[in-house]
């Protein structure tokens, strides 16, 4: 006769609570992310020539057609989470619209006329999505890279939609962007910037992984 009690099939396993930053840490990381975004707006991304060419050609750098700004947006989200990442970028945009020259081409309320303003608006949902994905599981480079990649996609999606609206609605007097100029704008602001930004996504994921290990979450 088997006297062992049968296992309870209706037993609900307790969900493991993932470590995450405290409210104070979120606030501090949001402030740090805001300052980092401002600084990185004006720092270009460079890469050296392949190491096997160093002996014959020497070491020289090539610009990758982007700045570290997007990396700062995604890094803040990976470390601080969805709220900290979104709040940092909301503060960045509000300060830039308040005539502080912290955008790539200055600042002020009329900055909405810049074709790249849609990408800046995309920083807010992009950071939120990246931060949300970054804390859906235990800290892993793959998860962080996925969050950064999806966040980058959201940023470009917002920028492309904004460019399309400018062209279709003929915003500005005279119109800032015509339908004929739209393909070139998409090529310049999205396609040409993507290779460098994807490299930046990889670097950001690795850096975020080690920083989160140091911070124990």
Automatic annotation (TrEMBL):
Question: Pfam families of this UniProt entry?
Answer: BioY (PF02632)
Is the Transmembrane keyword given for this protein? yes
Q: Which species?
A: Synechocystis sp. (strain ATCC 27184 / PCC 6803 / Kazusa)
Q: Which residues cross the membrane?
A: 27-47, 116-135, 144-165, 185-211
Keyword hit for Cell membrane: yes
Annotated gene: bioY
The coiled-coil segments of this chain are: none
Superkingdom of this protein's organism: Bacteria
Name used for this protein in its record: Biotin transporter
